[in-house]
Each structure stands twice: as structure tokens, then as C-alpha cells.
Amino acid sequence: MTGTKTGTSLGWFGIMRLGLVQTALGTIVVLATSTMNRVMVVEMVLPALLPGVLVALHYAVQVLRPRQVLLRRRWSANPWIIGGMALLGIAGIAAAVATAWMATNPTAGIVLAVLAFLLIGVGVGASGTSLLVLLAERVDDRRRAAAATIVWVMMISGFVVTATVAGHFLDPFSPERLVAVTGVAAASAFVLTILAVYDIERRTAPPAYRAVERNAGPQPPFAEALAEVWAEPQARRFAIFIFISMLAYSGQDLILEPFAGAVFGLTPGESTRLAGVQHGGVLIGMLLVALAGSAASRSRLGSMHAWTIGGCVLSAAALFSLAMAGSMAPDWPLRASVFGLGVANGAFAVAAIASMMRLVGTGQSSREGVRMGLWGAAQAVAFGLGGMIGTAAVDAIRYLYGSPILAYTAVFAAEAMLFLIAAGLATRVYRLPLALSASRLTTGAEGFTVGLDQA
Prior knowledge:
The chain is mostly helical. The chain has one domain (12-213, 221-454): Growth Hormone, Chain: A (Up-down Bundle). 79% of the residues lie in helices and 0% in strands. The protein is built from 18 helices and no strands. The protein has helices at 12-43, 49-60, 65-72, 77-101, 106-138, 141-170, 175-197, 208-214, 222-230, 233-251, 256-264, 268-293, 304-325, 334-359, 368-401, 404-429, 434-441, 443-454. The longest helix is centred in the C-terminal third of the chain and has 34 residues, at 368-401. It is globular, with a radius of gyration of 21 Å.
């Protein structure tokens, strides 16, 4: 199947087309959450907490994801995906203008930035959640985990390409360059989204059994549906695991580029390219797990349980190496530590995604969207809190002790400990018989490998 025949469920080609939407999302998000964050802290000499709060606002809005899912069921997905991307692009440009404005009028710039980042969150939630639910509805169960992995990989690809290309054009840095680069990225992302979703929803259909579930009758009130999903032990445990692991994952997100600039003296372009190195590592980590999954039937190498826990432990080790890096700057191999963090994060992420797409269909039928929305909201809240807590801690320690190196070291070490806690929580999520783990949880990565071959 190619995903282009009327009435068929999405095939590999259709899945990869929808993955381009995630690539477009990543294009704008990486500039807003990484590059603009670093400019505020290093070039504008503003408190690290400011971008932490702004990014937290962008994630806070996304707690509406479960409700957006129920609203989306009343209309087709394409208007939500395209409209969300349009809003995201406009908001991204506004965020760049606000960042530039802070150089001459900090108060006005901050007010505009608050509005821009709120709208970024709305755009990401509307477009991204609608895309994931469309995938969950229109992809056969045997392809679900592989589809989610492909889409996630394509989003990270957007991070890598944007960070590399934007990093080149941002030097020599000026606020005007930041606005121009963001404008080009936003326009490109919008065009790519339109091409990706054009006619795809009309020419595909949910599998017959899922179409029956979707039209089974009136949907319950949002609060009732959410309470039903939260009452499911496995869904609840997985939401808690996502929250803790993503809290650890996101804590370094807003401080890595400022750390590179303040401690290692990297320019805005260089630190943006460093983000590209990290996301390149994420891609490699994801591919490693996907390839290992193909050997699942022959050994434990492909166990998603093992990869999830191992990814958390390796992420902790990489963060401990960054904690050591500050005291040895500029001689420490920063790029190697950042790349290692990316690989570990990618391994953890793809294993968790494979599990998520398998677990989303468990429990009461016709609740896939609410389940996905709950987990998406847990991720969004964790990302917002992680970034805000991390930046606030950097500011507080720097103020108390006057040492940026000590501040970043303490935060990196704390994030490493959170990853170790997440590894322990993962053992509770995966309390399944070994045979079930081997047959179900590894199918996602194995399917991803087969999907790449067939695509």
C-alpha cells in the first residue's frame, strides 16, 4: 500500500508524507526554543528564567491536547494541521521580532514574546496532536509503532537541518538576521505542510474495525473520558513515566546553548550548529534501536524495555559528563558529550514511542485519542516545567555563588539523577510477561526497520 488509494489505510508512503508535517514543526520549534533562548540569555544578557517561562507557556497551552482531540473528531484533520502550522509560523516570526525588540525596548519585547510563545503552543498542539491522532486512526495496528517512529525521526531531522542551515546564516549575528532566518523557515514549513497533507485524508480511510469504533455513537463529556483513561493502571503509569523522563529530558534543553556560549565562548551560529550535533545524535540513537529491534526475535538486543531503561541510564551518564565539562572548559570535548547525550536520548525516545503506540490501543475502545492526548499533555507539562525549573536554578545558583560554571554543573547533575529515577519507574510500566514484551513491544522498532526498507 502506498497510502494514496481511495479507501485504503495509510501505507508507508502516506506515513512518510505525514512525517513531513513533523519536520515542518521541528523547523520552527527549534529556532524558538533553542536559538532565541540563547540570544536572550547571552546576547541580551537577560535572566535565563525569561526564556524558561516563555517556553513553559508554550508547553502549558498544550495541556489542552486531550480536549483538542475530542474537538478534532467533529471535523477533518487537514484544517487543524494546516491552520495550526500557519499559526505556528506567524507566532515563530513574532517571537523572533520580540527577541530583537528586547535589545531596544525590553518591556515591549517581553510582552510580545509572551503572546508569541502562547500562540506557538496553540499551533503545535493543534497541528501535532491532529497529526498523531490521524496516524493512530488510519494506520493498521501492525504499523502503528513504526509510523510513530518514522514521524518522530522526521521531526528530529527538521531540528538537524534547521539548526545546521540556520547556524550558518545567523553569523555574523544581528537581530535582523534572526528575524529573516525565522521568516524563511516559517514560510518553508507552511508550504511543506500543505504539500504533505494535500488530498491524503480524502484518499485514505481508517481500517474497517476502527471506522466502526469511531462512529459507534456520541462521545462522552471530556472530563468523563479523561477520568476513564486515568483509571486504567497502565495508561496512568505510562503518563507518570513520561512526565518524569521528559522532565529530565527537557531540563537541559534551554540551558545547553547558553552554557556553550557563556562557558565555552561559542557564537550564536556555533551554538545553533551544536544543537544540530545533538539532534544528529538523537537520529543515530533512534536508528540504532530500530535496527536492533529487527533482531528482537533472536535475542534480547531488541527489547524495548531494555532500550528504554538503558537510554535513561546512558542519558544520565552523558549529563554527568556535561556537569564535568564546565570545570575543564575550553579543553573538554563538548561536541562529543553533546553528541553522546543525543544518541542516548534518541535511544530512550524511540523505545518509549514504540511502547506508546502499542499501549494506546489497550484499555477501553474508542479512547485512543484521549489516551494519546493525556500522554501528550504529560509530556508538554514536563517540558514546560523542566525548562522553567532548569533556567530558574541556573539563575538562582549564579546569583548566590557568582559562578556560571557551578550553576550549570548543578543543573546538569540534577537532570542526570532524574533520568536515573525515570529508569526505575520504567520497570513498573513494563511489568508484562517476557513473551508479551518480546512479541508486542519489539514490533515497533522491527516494523520501523521494515518500513524504511519498503519505503
